[in-house]
Amino acid sequence: MNESIVRVSQVFFGWKLVLLSLLYAVPRQYDTSTHLFLTGCDANASWFWRVLAHGIEKLVIWDSVFYANGAERGLIYEHEWAFGRGWSLLIGILTPKSLTEWDESPLKSTYYYGLTGIILAIASHYLATIVLYYLTKLVFSRRRDVERYACVVATLYALSPAGMFLIAGYAEAPFALASFIGLYLRHNQYYVFSGMFFAFSCALRGNGVLWGLLFLYDLANLSIALLENITGMTIPFVSKNKESEELFFSRKEPKGEALRGSNEQNGVEASENGNQGSSFSRTEPKGEALRGSNEQSEPEIREADPGGLGASPQKTVPTNEQSGFIPQKAAKRTRVFNLRELGQGGSESRDTCLQQKEPRAIVFQMVRVIAGGTLIGLMVIGLQLYPYLLFCPGRPWCEKTIPSIFGYVQSEYWNVGFMRYWTPNNIPNFLFGGPTLYLLYRSLVYYRHERVLRPVLLVQLVVLVTALLVYHVQIITRIATCLPAMYWYVGSLLTSTNLTQVKMGKRVVNYFILWTMAHAILFGAFLPPA
């Protein structure tokens, strides 16, 4: 097995044992309302069943109660639809009937549904950690220390500040797993399969619909690329802002990028200082960087700065124009980052068409993007249509222009809405979510020039703004588990050659550890945040 995977696995399971030990050591719960559903063991049950029941009672609280009940009997009441149907349905399907229908069982069937949710959550968190490791290696493949960097990022994710929410049968862990797989497949341009996993994430959590922005982003870029290929013109707005990089399919570089390196003939680029150093950005051959007329030349592929900070010289791979050869893997990665060359994984004839930039190749890619995005749309419609058929007419939300039970229930029963949470009594909840909000913001700033990350950062920006202004802000700590840029950012700090940045990264790790331990104790006592 991969040595990095072994190390990450050791940290993951060791940390889970620490958190479960802290949770189990809490003597009593502040709120005992869940005992209405979890009524304890039979009087004659053995110590094993008593220990198991006690652990489940500690974990099946807050939202996980709704998931366990929904798995056992389905969603009966309107307010239960706030938690969606997918996760509780999955728990119900995977819970063995031999346990739930066991007549002599020392535990009520609800315990087994809760236990299934706990096991699935832990397994999903572990698998999401492994997928993030491989996603990081894919996205940051040009870093010279990519193996170490991916291991650091995966370890950070194992220590996620979401803490007990990734153990207690919440939907966040499987949602993150589906999201990371979708991102991995999309990065390799398997749009239909990517859309399938993103659609599945929508069934787990309502905010999965935001992944549709990735497909809209790609479709917009492909549409512009098609227009450019047909007309032979460059879309003017692409290069209006000279201070920012152009859209990632454009072959031209902004002025600052064109003048960045002075010794490209030797295959070495002097990076800018600070956060402008990029793990993704590419140097162009001299003629191209200076807006030359040779549009057929391939851009160089630059290895990434170990710290992502532009602190050391970079090596480049010569283009086929310079050396007559470009490695197959490097060419493949170029197609991943440049949607103008759209034939990754296709036939040899298709790759030839793509190199010639034929419109039909772009149209073919657009069809795949639309197909993947359509799967997300169909899932969202289905999730709204089913409760509509159950409850309508007769409920206020049925008469809305867009009759969404999810939006109505969140507003009516959980007081979710614009600025509704901005009250003095919720200041502690803002403090709970503050560190995660800050890290999300810092990662947005840090990667703002990375063209390949723009659609992912767009989703992160929407989540950040809505969490701050609309949601119950403290839940951002667990919602952010599906957003990899925060962990990439902290990983870049820890692997930086800049000692100040390394110290900052270590402070973040200390926060992860201390907060997660504190949350295990609070969760065990049935105390906020939830």
UniProtKB/TrEMBL annotation:
- Note whether Endoplasmic reticulum occurs among the keywords: yes
Presence of the UniProt keyword Transmembrane helix in the record: yes
Keywords tagged on the record: Endoplasmic reticulum, Glycosyltransferase, GPI-anchor biosynthesis, Membrane, Transferase, Transmembrane, Transmembrane helix
Q: Which GO terms describe its molecular function?
A: alpha-1,6-mannosyltransferase activity; GPI mannosyltransferase activity
Span-the-membrane segments of this chain are 12-30, 111-136, 148-171, 191-217, 366-386, 427-445, 452-469, 475-496, 508-527
| GO biological process per UniProt | GPI anchor biosynthetic process
Task: Please state where this protein is localized.
Answer: Endoplasmic reticulum membrane
User: Per the record, a Pfam family?
Assistant: Mannosyl_trans2
**Recorded GO CC terms:** endoplasmic reticulum membrane; mannosyltransferase complex
Compositional bias ranges of the Polar residues kind: 262-282, 313-325
Q: In which pathway does it act?
A: Glycolipid biosynthesis; glycosylphosphatidylinositol-anchor biosynthesis
Look up the EC number in the record and give it: 2.4.1.-
Membrane topology field: Multi-pass membrane protein
Q: Which residues form a coiled coil?
A: none
Instruction: Name the segments for region: Disordered.
Output: 253-325
The top EC class is transferase
* Signal peptide range: none
Q: Return the InterPro entries for the record.
A: PIG-V/Gpi18
* Functional description taken from the UniProt entry: Mannosyltransferase involved in glycosylphosphatidylinositol-anchor biosynthesis.
Its family remark reads: Belongs to the PIGV family.
Return the protein name: GPI mannosyltransferase 2
Q: Which organism is it from?
A: Trichomonascus ciferrii
